[in-house]
Amino acid sequence: MARILMKGNEAIAEAAIRAGAEGYFCYPITPQSEVAEYLAKRMPEVGGVFLQGESEVAVGNMLFGAASTGKRVFTTSSSPGISLMQEAISYIAGAHLPVVFVNIMRAGPGLGGILPAQSDYFQSVKGGGHGDYRLLVLAPSTVQEAVDLMMLAFDLADKYLNPVMVIGDGLIGQMMEAVEFPDSDPKQNRVNLEERKWAATGAKGRDPVIIKSLFLDPLELEENSLLMDKKYEQMKKEEVRYELYKVSAKNELLVVSYGTVARICQTVIDELESEGVSVGLFRPITLFPFPEKEIYREAKKKNIKTVLTVEMSTGQMVEDVERAIIGAKPVKFFGRTGGIVPNPEEIQGKVLELIGSMKKRSTSSRKRK
Amino acid sequence: MAMTQSNTAIFSRPESMQSTVTHYCPGCTHGVIHRLVAEAIDEIGARDRTVGVAPVGCSVLAYNYFNCDFLEAAHGRAPAFATGFKRLRPDMIVFTYQGDGDLASIGMGEIVHAANRGEKFTTIFVNNAVYGMTGGQMAPTTLPGQVTSTCPVGRNANEVGYPIRMAELLSTLVTPGYIERVAVHTPKHIINARKAIRRAFQYQAENRCYSMIEVLSTCPTNWGKTPEEAVKWLDKEMAAYYPIKCFKDSVREGNK
Ligand SMILES: Cc1ncc(C[n+]2csc(CCOP(=O)(O)OP(=O)(O)O)c2C)c(N)n1
Ligand code: SF4
Question: Which burial class, exposed, middle or buried, applies to B182 when counting CB atoms under 10 A from its CB (0-12, 13-18, 19+)?
Fold first, then answer.
C-alpha cells in the first residue's frame, strides 16, 4: 500500500482494524477521541463492533466480556480513563485473556491537563491494578511505529494470553506523519474461534469453559500466579525490543529515552555531533520487558562516563535505568512535565553541563596526582 | 401373578445443571433460582450456546452448578461484561446472575446503562436485602428498620435513604423490554417465577429485548432467622415493600 499522511490516533485505529480487531469499546477523552470518531465509521464497514460505553470502568469490563469470546478486542483512552480501567485490567490479566489497551498519555495527576506527558510509566510498567500481574508495554516514537506496534500488540496479547498496553504521549496521537499499512484484508487477520479452546463458545460436545480469577484455595491461586510469572519470564527472554541511535565507541555519554522524547534527543545528538561532541541514544521500545541487560551492556562500556535519562515526567523510567546499570555508571535525569515537551536546547544544555562537569572532574583529579 | 410396571420420570435434574453438593446455607433460595434458570435454558434448547455471567456475591461460584460455559465478572460489572460478550456473539444466549449489593450498589451504573441500551441479554437479579457473602452488611435494598451488621439499630432511612426498588427504577426507562418481580418462597410463587424466567430467556432467543427478573430471595443466615421464619419475613415484610408483579412487558404489549 502507498504511504499516506495520517494523524496518529487515526493510524492507530486503522492498524487495529488491519490486525483483525472485531470489537472496540471506548469513552471519549482528549487527546485520543479521534480514535473513537474514526472507528465509529470504520468498524461497521468491516462488520466489527463499535460501542461507546458509559464510563471507562464499564468499558474495561466490556472488554473483559468481549475478550472471553476469543475475538480480538481493544480500547484506547488517556490517563484518567486508563486509571478507571485498572480494575478490569487486573481481572483480565488474572483470567489470562488477550486485550490491547492504548494509553495516549496526558499530564496528571488528577484531571491534570490535556497536553502530552509520559507520567503513566509507573502505572503501565509497575502495575496499577491489584495483584501479581504485569502488562507487556510497548512505546512507539513515530506514527509508523505506532502502526507496527499495534499489529504486534494483538499478536503478543494472543501469544501470552495477557493484556498488552501501548503507551504513547499525546504527540503520538495528535501529530500527522506519513504511514504505510501492510497490504492485508482486515478479515484475514481475524482469529479462528475453533482454535481458541479457552474461549467461551458454548459447551457443545465439550465440558463447560470457565473463565475466572477467583481461586479460594491459596495453593491454586499461587499456582495461577506462578503460571502468570512464567509468562513474564518468557517475555523477558523473547520480547525485549529497543533501538540504538549513533551509539559508538566515541560516545562520551549515553542518553536513555523513549517515545517522542527520544526523537527530540536524536535532534540534540545530531546537533552535538556537528559540534564534535559524541553522544549515543538507547531507546527502549518495550518498557516491560525492560531492556535491562542491553542498557547495562551499553552503559558499562569504557567510553561512557554518564548515563542521562530524559522523560516527560519527574523521573519514572530513570528508576529502571538505575536498576539496570546497578551502579556501574552515574545515572542522571532530565525531565519536563505538566504537558511541557522539553525543547532540544534545554536537553543539549543538560548534556553539555554533564560532559563539562565530567571533564572538570577528570582534569582536577589529574592535577591532584 | 406379577404385574409389570413401567416407571416414567416426571422430575429430574435439568441438563443445564450439574450434579453437585450445594455450598449455599440451609433455607437459602439461591439454589431454587439456579434450577429455574437451568430449566429455562433447557426449554429453549440453548445449553450448548449459553454463557452465564456470575457476580461477586454468594453466587460467585454459580459455575459449579450450571452445565454451560460460565464467566466470572468483577463486582457489579456483570452487565458491562455481558454487553461486551453479547455484542461480539449475538448468536449466543447470555445471562447475568446478580445479587443486590452487586447490582443495586456498586454496579448501579452498569445495570442502568446496559438496560437502557437494550442489550439483548437477561438479568436474574437476586434481592435478599443484605450483602450475603461478606457477612450480612446493609445493602441498598435493606428494609427500613431492618437490622444488619452495619446498621445494628436498624436501617435509618433518614440517614441512608430508603431501599431502592430496582424493577420500578428500570421500568421507567423506555428501552428495556421485560421487567418483572417474582419470589420463590412458596410453590405458587416458584411456578410464577419459573414462567417469568422462561419468558425472559424466550425473548432473548427471539432477539427481542433486554429483560430483568428481580427475584425476592431468602438469606436466613444473615437475617438471623430460621429458614421457616425467613420465608414468613419475606412474605410479610419484603413483599410489602417490593410488590411482586410484572412492571413492563413490551412484547405482550405489542411494542417489541
Ligand atoms: C470491588 C469490591 N468491593 C467489595 C468486594 C467485597 N464483596 C464481595 S461480595 C459483596 C456483596 C455481595 O452481596 P450481594 O450482591 O447482595 O450478593 P449475596 O452475597 O447477598 O448473594 C461484597 C461487598 C469485592 N469483592 N470487590
Ligand atoms: S449467606 Fe445468605 S445468600 Fe449467602 S448462601 Fe447463605 S443464606 Fe444464601
Answer: buried
Which CATH architecture fits A3-238? 3-Layer(aba) Sandwich (3.40)
CATH class as words, domain A242-368? alpha beta
> What's the CATH fold of domain B30-254?
Rossmann fold (3.40.50)
Q: What is the CA radius of gyration of chain A?
A: 22
- What pLDDT digit, counting tens, does each position of A333-351 carry? 999 999 999 999 999 999 9
d(CA B143, CA B159) in angstroms, rounded, equals 13
CB-defined contacts A:B, below 8 A? 125
| 3-class DSSP state of A341 | coil
Question: Residue B23 pairs with which residues in a beta bridge?
Answer: none
Selected residue of B41, B72, B96 to mutate for chain A interface (largest A Cβ count, 10 A): B72
Domain(s) labelled CATH 3.40.50.920 in chain A stretch across: 242-368
For chain B, give every domain's residue range: 30-254
Single-letter code of the amino acid located at A133:
Y
User: Can you give the pTM of this predicted structure?
Assistant: 0.96
Name the β-bridge partners of B54. B72
Identify which of B32, B127, B216, B219 to mutate to test ligand 2's pocket (most ligand atoms within 8 A of the CB): B219
* Chain region(s) in chain A for CATH 3.40.50.970: 3-238
B124, B199 Cβ separation under 8 angstroms: no
Ligand nearest to the CA of B224: 2
Pick the atom of ligand 2 nearest to B217's CA: 3
What are the pLDDT digits (tens) for B36-58?
A: 999 999 999 999 999 999 999 99
Determine the distance from the C-alpha atom of residue A219 to the mean position of all C-alpha atoms in its chain, rounded to a whole number.
33
ipTM value greater than 0.90: yes
